[in-house]
Specification:
By secondary structure, the chain is an alpha/beta fold. It has two domains: 2-268, 4-Layer Sandwich (Purple Acid Phosphatase, chain A, domain 2), CATH 3.60.21.10; 275-455, 5'-nucleotidase,  domain 2, CATH 3.90.780.10. The protein is 30% helix and 28% strand. It is built from 14 helices and 25 strands. The protein has helices at residues 19-35, 54-59, 62-70, 80-84, 88-94, 142-148, 155-166, 181-190, 256-272, 293-305, 329-335, 349-359, 427-430, 443-455, and strands at 2-9, 39-44, 75-76, 101-103, 107-109, 118-119, 121-125, 131-138, 150-152, 172-178, 196-199, 210-212, 215-218, 226-235, 238-248, 276-280, 310-314, 325-328, 342-348, 382-385, 387-391, 397-401, 404-405, 411-417, 435-437. It has a seven-stranded mixed sheet, with helices on one face. A six-stranded mixed sheet has the order 7-8-10-11-13-12, with helices on one face. It has a five-stranded mixed sheet with strand order 20-17-24-19-25. Helix 10 (293-305) packs across helix 14 (443-455). The longest helix is centred in the N-terminal third of the chain and has 17 residues, at 19-35. It is globular and about 80 Å long. It starts with a strand and ends with a helix. Residues 5-204 form the Calcineurin-like phosphoesterase domain. One of its GO terms (cellular component) is outer membrane-bounded periplasmic space. This is 2',3'-cyclic-nucleotide 2'-phosphodiesterase (5'-nucleotidase family). One of its GO terms (biological process) is nucleotide catabolic process.
Amino acid sequence: MEVIHFYHINDLHSHFETWPKISRFLHEKRREHENRSQQVFIFDIGDHMDRVHPFTEATLGKCNVELLNEANVDFVTIGNNEGITLPFEALDDLYANADFQVLIGNLFYNDNTRPTWVKPYHIQETKEGTKIGFVGLTVYFSKFYQELGWRISEPLEELAKIVAQIKGKADVLVLLSHLGIHEDEEIARRFPEIDVIMGGHTHHIFEHGKIENQSLLACAGKHGNYIGHIQLVLEGHSIQSKTAKLIDINDIPQKNQDDKAIQYWQNKGEELLQQVVVTLPRTLPSNWQKETELSRLLAEGLKEWCKADAAILNCGLFLKDLHKGPVTKLDIHQLLPHPINPCTVWINGQELIEVIKQATEEKWMNWVLKGLGFRGKVMGSFLYAGIHIVDEDSYHKKFWMNGRPIDPDKEYKIATIDMFTFGPFFPEVFRAEKKEYDVAHMLRDIMEWQLYRTFS
């Protein structure tokens, strides 16, 4: 009888406050199983990094790779935070010093060759001679990868090709999937030969795994709150049983050195972001309830950056004041930590008026928002550049753009942020046929550019 252990994490999002416990636990479990002559493999299923943390921001994810190395991780796949929040060159170099294997079956250069640091799958033979095929796939954000200079293929189509290649070469087939729960379930239905699917992306939790068709699905939530453990029992290289469970991070004892490590990563990131961008002659306050000089600066800068007719932003994006005196990259990162990109949308005047009407609704002021790249707390009020609202009376408003009434039939180019094209905010923006994303720049890059132009 052969016993094989898998330990997996997913969607840490640079929540390093849980990492000391995770790393120590993984080292202890590896020693424990190997002392019993049991095989153990450790996995990260993507979105380990998130540029909301200053250390990740300052190193463009290199610090995350170092932490994975130190934890003695064996295999990883990437999530959208690795894939589409880094410039092309940064992702292409991210794993240069990795001690683990990166598995992504559906990522290519534009010439259809695979990056040298990627394998679509890897077949690992255990000490008992069992051959395990490990496959990795990441979420299909085709347009964003294309804008960055990558090509990403449809995951299930690519998986079919890989499974055909592995057929007959592996006794056990395991998928590292940063695709989300619905795709994982679909894969289990369509590919019964896959024995285990370790998931991520949708931050779901399977406390004891889930059997779908013949596959065992597993996922460990987010932010390092859980570590997943899968145990396979084999006889004659054939699986006899497969079980999954989650280890709650709160059940792992805290040690004195944990807080020191967490603080070191925070301090190191802040130290690396101390470059002064501009010196302000006055303090620029933020306010999620109303427009300020600071928020207006970004709205006007976004409009000009995108060469748009107007810009629309929400005040909840701004998380701190910028104080009089030197302003550093760290200050701007703390102001706008969101992995959110500028976006340009083409809509007609009537649609634009509807968007403005919706944006003036009181519900947004305290609307709690999580996900879609937003790292603040509430949406807050909306502000505009190039758009002026005139109250004729308590019931009627007129909408002007750049000194003229908005023409209902005219097409307008509107600069905004990418999350408004994804979520349930403005139907007119969501369904707009023409959208362009500036995935090479974060919103804070535009803020830095605008501050420098204004105050240098």
